[in-house]
Specification:
alpha/beta; two-stranded antiparallel ribbon; 8 helices; nine-stranded mixed beta sheet; Carbamate kinase
Length: about 240
């Protein structure tokens, strides 16, 4: 495979790590992700990753149940660190070098994130997992992904989901929903589509960061995307 991109930011949802368990981390799903990510890293692609924490704790949901919003978001940040450690362990078990950088000081769990340090690790062939969101409450991991993609100068932000792209409506609820192969940022705004929160979408738009939404749960799809196959939906 000749990769279409040299450096990517891969956003994974915490919920996807649950697999069919309904909670926590499914070892089979984790191993599948590690295999896919390791394969593209072996092909020469520099891979940075941001993972959500919704399989463990989601700050906004916690606030709805009475948690203080700031503390709830901080708990969500810690959930992303747990997921990041799990993925780094799975990657290392599969024989790949991975490094966890955290947006808040958490040594020795992970080094403190800086764009310069992350770029050094990427250039050295390490898979870099940036945990802890932006390090601030009221910002989602989608926004953290967009921010890290821009900071690290990636060519594209890949959003791995459980559906194979962006549709006119939720395809799991509306069987008549149709899929887009490509669409502009303006179309997302005008159609009221929430593939990410508006802060993340706006950050990508203002910095010309392409977003490619695809199904990460189908083994091999990450390689297909990087090989240039027309799967998923490209936002530009």
């Amino acid at each position: 495979m000749t990769p279409k991109y040299k450096r990517i930011l891969l956003k994974l949802s915490g919920e996807s790590l649950m697999g069919h368990q309904g909670h926590g981390i499914d070892p089979e799903r984790l191993a599948s992700y590690a295999e896919q990510i390791g394969a593209v890293a072996d092909s020469g692609v520099e891979v940075a990753i941001v993972i959500g924490g919704g399989n463990i704790f989601r700050g906004l949901s916690g606030a709805a149940k009475g948690f203080d919003r700031v503390k709830g978001d901080q708990m969500g940040m810690l959930a992303t660190v747990i997921n990041s450690l799990a993925l780094s362990s799975a990657l290392e078990t599969a024989g790949h070098r991975a490094r966890v950088l955290t947006s808040i000081g958490m040594f020795p769990i992970g080094e403190h994130y800086s764009p310069m340090r992350a770029k050094e690790c990427l250039a050295a062939g390490e898979i870099v997992i940036v945990a802890g969101g932006t390090g601030n409450p009221f910002f989602t991991t989608d926004t953290a992904s967009a921010l890290r993609a821009v900071e690290l100068g990636t060519e594209v932000m890949l959003k791995g989901t459980r559906v194979d792209g962006i549709y006119t409506a939720d395809p799991e609820k509306d069987p008549t929903a149709t899929k887009f192969d490509k669409m502009t940022y303006d179309e997302i705004y005008n159609r009221g589509l929430r593939i990410m929160d508006l802060t993340a979408t706006t950050l990508c738009r203002e910095n010309g960061m392409k977003i490619l939404v695809f199904d990460m749960d189908t083994p091999g799809n990450l390689e297909r995307v990087l090989g240039g196959e027309n799967i998923g939906t490209l936002v530009y």
